Amino acid sequence: MHGIEEVQLTSKKLVDGDLKVFFSLVSLILIASSPKLTVHLTGLAIFSLLSFHAARMNYFRIIRPSLFFILPGMFAVCLTAGISAAMATGLRCLASVSVLTYLISTTTIPEFFASLKRLRLPYFVAETATLIYRVIQILMDEASRMEVAASSKHGFASRKAFLRTVSLLSYSLFIRAMKRAEIVEFAMESRCYSGKMPVHCQKSRGWIIAIACLSILAIAWWFL
Asked: What residue ranges are annotated as transmembrane (predicted)?
């Protein structure tokens, strides 16, 4: 998670602020709802370039897990519905994933939900999702440290040791998670947390690029 956040904070953003979220969501709707291959190819090209410009080589690291699901799915569709259906389905998935990759590469979770709040998303939904995201980070950090400690003591050397170690780690992780949750709660209260998470408002920029990309997608939708 920290690696993704580092990419998000250091990425080069041609489109920024709330605009990048709205731009990505509108593009995703256009691409996912269109049956035309020209729209899928156009979307794939546009957002692959934008993602690579933003994240450089990290782009391939972010999109790689998606390919492990898309490619076997294309193979299954090919066996059941033919090559043309597999290519159409795979291309639509790749184009949609390229939009999401761009969004992931440039937008943190707090930024994303802060933008959705301006679209009248219920406040408690955005707040709960943001807190869950932070708690997951805490759990991942604790689990990683405990796994390293157990490995250094040969806790996974055999099947019996593996089962014993996993059971002990699960119990210890639960206890530590509760303690960390209390620490986080005290820290938030000491900072006068009133039930509303502060959000950073970034000025939207890159309107020309966003409008140009959406115009190209619209042209591909209606005329190609």
From this structure: 67-88, 94-114, 206-223
